[in-house]
From TrEMBL:
<dbReference type="Pfam" id="PF00171">
    <property type="entry name" value="Aldedh"/>
</dbReference>
<keyword id="KW-0479">Metal-binding</keyword>
<keyword id="KW-0521">NADP</keyword>
<dbReference type="GO" id="GO:0046872">
    <property type="term" value="F:metal ion binding"/>
</dbReference>
<dbReference type="InterPro" id="IPR015590">
    <property type="entry name" value="Aldehyde_DH_dom"/>
</dbReference>
<keyword id="KW-0560">Oxidoreductase</keyword>
<dbReference type="InterPro" id="IPR011408">
    <property type="entry name" value="Aldehyde_DH"/>
</dbReference>
<comment type="similarity">
    <text>Belongs to the aldehyde dehydrogenase family.</text>
</comment>
<feature type="active site">
    <location>
        <position position="266"/>
    </location>
</feature>
<dbReference type="InterPro" id="IPR016163">
    <property type="entry name" value="Ald_DH_C"/>
</dbReference>
<feature type="domain" description="Aldehyde dehydrogenase">
    <location>
        <begin position="41"/>
        <end position="487"/>
    </location>
</feature>
<feature type="domain" description="Aldehyde dehydrogenase">
    <location>
        <begin position="537"/>
        <end position="761"/>
    </location>
</feature>
<dbReference type="InterPro" id="IPR029510">
    <property type="entry name" value="Ald_DH_CS_GLU"/>
</dbReference>
<protein>
    <submittedName>
        <fullName>Aldehyde dehydrogenase (NAD+)</fullName>
        <ecNumber>1.2.1.3</ecNumber>
    </submittedName>
</protein>
<dbReference type="InterPro" id="IPR016162">
    <property type="entry name" value="Ald_DH_N"/>
</dbReference>
<keyword id="KW-0558">Oxidation</keyword>
<dbReference type="InterPro" id="IPR016161">
    <property type="entry name" value="Ald_DH/histidinol_DH"/>
</dbReference>
Length: 795
């Protein structure tokens, strides 16, 4: 065979990577691996173990300790004991520890890469060239954040003790994504690796110990799902960071509800891969290879939904099928393969069943005619074309090397199809017209968008999703905030119990004319509206005098308000200058009626005239603050180590429910609503339950301030009952709730349906007059999602 023929056929022979050192390392632990707790490997307290298997052969690789309650308790205790001392270290000292970990990873890169390939089944080229170098990059990058933490995050402190649960698809890289920022910013960690792929985490524990990481700072507890559940439920953990399936993420949201734990969830996806007719077709075909056959398609952000413009669909599929025939599936340690083994037989069975279901629903199946290794769990590169948008293979995450394809005609149809999913993790857009690509990227419901590229990652660029792909970000500055909490909120006390709703005292009538009824209505879609149930409640002064009535909102009123908020989507696309002007106008109109609003606060709450005036003045100032921020809370440009940039773009979340605190009836309302509308959100607000008249008076200010209909909607009534409706509503994208501990628990638990973002106070009192605690970037960060748009450039 000639050299030219080799290049034509790409029929190279195997080039196996040596596994001698990795097998020797495994042999040294033939008796089994213990948990890594407080700087040492220890057996399970129960004595229970389980086997982990090699995906490519099905053979037992190692015996692992199966963590139980006692093991988790010990790990948490060790982390708690170490946390204060670790956090007190100067940032430079923590930076040096992370630098040492990065260098240790680099010195042992080949061993880590081989162990990862054996344990996970992915090709050695991927572990060697992507996973391990990027893991080292994360430790280097976050060593930098540790060094400058005192200046860059001066108003924040570490969260504390963090429980982290990682998946089996990128075991070592996910460890770095989680552990590096947590340690850099002064937290201590208990990591639970996936039961299928725990070996590189245990190898890292050995390396960390050798690098001099203080005892108790990093703890690793191995085990199955129950071990993770014990970690999630532990009362002495301050934060849970989870990467895995949406189903498990939903359970974690429910189980942590009301616990006060910080939570980040990076969950599943069904990411669109959009190809326009002016795209570089061969480049896009290679993009598909990287999008869905990288790591056997076992990637949460895999570009598994191909959306191809009709005019090039036949040509694109022809070239894609031809490229599929050149892919090689083989043993993970063969440096010439493109795909390795599926993680386990149970996952292989699931992939096979979903593909069969897709064919039964009308899809056309094409599988590459290539030889698969004997034994182990292997599956060929697969394309399902002619898929309908509602087919199960178009809506469910397959998590295997299966691409599903459908066509579109116009950019608008492409956007509609791309967003036709309950997920929102990532997307790819392929077009040689940069204006078209960026226009589409801005309209996609995804946390990450790649332009003419796919599956690009870097420690400096935030990664994370929206919708049922979870919330929170990992990487970059935005990822650092996930491991910090505001200093101004440290030491907050439980909110004093609010008195029962004040009752009107009976008053004998006389011959004076009765007052004209002025029952405050709801405010929905820019109009005053009577409550659906036609019930109202009397608002009494502290002395029992009736000072007004408000409508009693119900489920239908919330439904109408959400519909009105959805219809006001143009507000999210308005210019920041326009939103700033309107906020200034609201403040101006409120200022003109300051005495009236102060008198209302005094009448409702019994506050002194001085305190009431101070609250109104603070509310006006707060509106000015968010008017100022509206055109200044901007994104950034990340410069990852490639020829290109990543744009970090803050976007409005969408429709946000707000349950206002019982205290500070005007200032509390404005402190929550103003940052949301400044960022482009539309709001359904439930005012202070005992003192709602400030908010119902305020809608007359909105009516005269050019606020578009539906941007702010006000529904009065029971805070807890209306919160239940908002939390369960699938068209509400986020919910802020300030009030009782019961309210926070209810909101977090019921929000698990569509995994909406929540912002609650867990029954802790906020000093609304304190600008550090109640104003600024602290609230704006929670009012936006950050979308990172990757734009490679050059030939």
């Amino acid at each position: 065979m000639t050299v030219a023929k080799y290049f034509d056929e790409m029929s190279y022979g195997p080039a196996p990577e040596s596994d001698i050192e990795a097998r020797d390392w495994l042999a040294r632990h033939a008796s089994g691996f213990g948990h890594f707790i407080n700087g040492a490997f220890v057996p399970s307290a129960s004595g229970k173990n389980f086997d982990t298997f090699e995906p490519a052969t099905g053979k037992v690789l190692a015996k692992l300790a199966n963590g139980g309650a006692a093991d988790v308790d010990n790990a948490v205790a060790a982390a708690r004991k170490a946390q204060a001392s670790w956090a007190r270290l100067p940032g430079h000292a923590r930076a040096r520890h992370l630098y040492a970990l990065a260098r240790m990873i680099q010195r042992h890169a080949r061993l880590i890469a081989v162990v990862e390939a054996i344990d996970n089944g992915k090709p050695i080229r991927e572990t060697r060239d992507l996973d391990v170098p990027l893991a080292a990059r994360h430790f280097y990058h976050h060593a930098g954040w540790a060094q400058i933490q005192d200046t860059e995050f001066a108003d924040h402190v570490p969260v504390g003790v963090v429980g982290q649960i990682i998946p089996w698809n990128f075991p070592f890289l996910m460890l770095a994504w989680k552990v590096a920022p947590a340690l850099a910013l002064g937290n201590t960690v208990i990591l639970k690796p996936a039961e299928f792929t725990s070996l590189t985490a245990l190898l890292f524990a050995e390396l960390a110990s050798a690098a001099g990481l203080p005892t108790g700072v990093l703890n690793i507890v191995t085990g199955e799902g129950e071990t993770g559940a014990l970690l999630v439920g532990h009362q002495d953990i301050d934060k849970i960071a989870f990467t895995g399936s949406t189903e498990v993420g939903r359970v974690i949201r429910e189980r942590t509800a009301g616990s006060g734990k910080s939570l980040t969830l990076e969950l599943g996806g069904k990411s669109p891969f959009v190809v326009f007719d002016d795209a570089d077709i061969d480049g896009a075909v290679e993009g598909v290879v990287d999008a869905i056959w990288f790591n056997q398609g076992q990637v949460c952000c895999a570009g598994s939904r191909l959306l191809v413009q009709e005019g090039i669909a036949d040509l694109f599929h022809e070239r894609l099928k031809r490229r599929m025939e050149t892919l090689r599936v083989g043993q993970p340690l063969d440096k010439c393969i493109d795909m390795g083994a599926i993680i386990a037989p149970v996952q292989l069975t699931r992939i096979e069943a979903l593909v069969k279901k897709g064919v039964s629903e009308g899809a056309t199946l094409h599988q590459a005619k290539i030889d698969l290794p004997k034994g182990g769990s292997f599956y060929p590169p697969t394309l399902l074309s002619g898929v309908q948008p509602t087919s199960i293979v178009a809506t469910e995450e397959i998590f295997g090397p299966v691409a599903v394809s459908m066509t579109f005609r116009t950019p608008e149809e492409a956007i509609q199809l791309a967003n036709h999913t309950r997920y929102g993790l990532a997307a790819s857009v392929w077009s040689e017209t940069i204006g078209l690509a960026l226009n589409v990227a801005a309209k996609l419901a995804a946390g990450v968008v790649w332009v003419n590229a796919t599956n690009l990652f870097d420690a400096a660029v935030g990664f994370g999703g929206k919708r049922e792909s979870g919330f929170g970000r990992e990487g970059g500055r935005e990822g650092c905030y996930e491991y910090l909490k505001p200093k101004a909120w440290v030491g907050r006390k439980a909110r004093a119990a609010m008195p029962a709703l004040l009752q009107v005292k009976p008053v004998a009538g006389d011959f004076a004319l009765p007052t004209i009824d002025r029952t405050a209505k709801l405010f929905i879609g820019g109009k005053q509206a009577r409550p659906d149930g036609n019930y109202s409640r009397v608002i009494a002064s502290p002395k029992g005098k009736a000072i007004g009535e408000v409508g009693e909102g119900n489920r239908k009123d919330i439904r109408n308000a959400v519909v009105a908020a959805q219809a006001a989507s143009a507000w999210s696309n308005a210019t920041t200058h326009n939103r700033a002007q309107i906020l200034y106008y609201i403040a101006e109109n409120l200022s003109g009626r300051a005495d009236e609003f102060a008198a209302r606060i005094t009448a409702m709450t019994g506050a002194s005239a001085a305190n009431a005036n101070a609250e109104v003045d603070a509310a006006i100032s707060r509106l000015f603050t968010y008017a100022a921020w509206a055109d200044k809370y901007e994104g950034g440009i990340h410069q990852p180590p490639l020829r290109g940039v990543a744009l970090a773009m803050p976007e409005a979340i969408g429709v946000v429910g707000v349950i206002c605190p019982p205290e500070a009836p005007l200032l509390g309302f404005i402190s929550l609503v103003a940052p949301l509308i400044a960022a482009g959100n539309r709001v359904v607000a439930v005012p202070s339950e005992p003192f709602p008249l400030s908010a119902t008076d305020f809608y007359s200010v909105l009516e005269t301030s050019d606020v578009p209909a539906g941007v702010v909607n006000i529904v009065t009534g029971s805070a807890i009952e209306l919160a239940k409706i908002l939390a369960a509503h699938n068209d509400v994208d986020a919910l802020w709730a300030f009030g009782s501990a019961e309210l926070s628990t209810t909101v977090e638990k019921l929000s698990s349906g569509n995994l909406k973002r929540t912002f609650v106070d867990n029954g802790k009192a906020t000093d609304w007059m304190d600008r550090a605690a109640a104003e600024g970037a602290l609230y704006l960060r929670r009012a936006v999602d950050v979308k990172n748009i990757w734009i490679p450039y050059g030939e």
